[in-house]
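This part of the workshop introduces the protein records we will be handling. As an example, a complete record with its sequence and its structure tokens follows.
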Amino acid sequence: MNDQTSAVTLPDSPPHIAVFGLDESRKAHASVFGQADADLARKAASLMGLHVLQLDRPEHHIAAQKLPKGRVFASGKAFVPFVKRALYDELCGFGGVNPNEVVLPQREANNADAVKDISETAPLILNYPEDWTRIRPGSVVLAIDQPEDGWCDAVVTETQPDGLHILIWRDYSDYPPFARHTHELALLHPQAQQSEEAGQ
């Protein structure tokens, strides 16, 4: 549900639309966008196989207050974070959407292209940063998908000036890339790389 190119910086505005959908692993994503970037967000939703809800009723705005803010990227896709399933189901009810519907074909193609782009442009050399300031492409860190799943190894594929990192799950390469800020990541023990090399 995330892209790997620079984000379009637009002025903040009150929530105008919500973008939501399930990814290939049936995990719920949703975010809100202001009027300033609503048109771009609608195009991104169409490209990514997501649903759009116009926030024009009081109950919509109540739900919108619980949603994270999305970001539109220059490539035309968007950052739409994970949300709790109950909130996602509520959005589906507002939009008359089947909560179990997953639109796969185009997103699968997009994800394959993203993985291809990463592998063809610059092979990642894995590294184990000793502090957060040393996180860079190729850094192996820990991230959480769902709280009940705990921390898992992830590899940074891109870092952005605002502290947002694009990552892929190290052991789940078929999952789409995702984004996390530095404060949402954890570092592996300094001896992790030595232990891995000893096991090879």
Observations:
- DSSP finds five helices and nine strands in the chain.
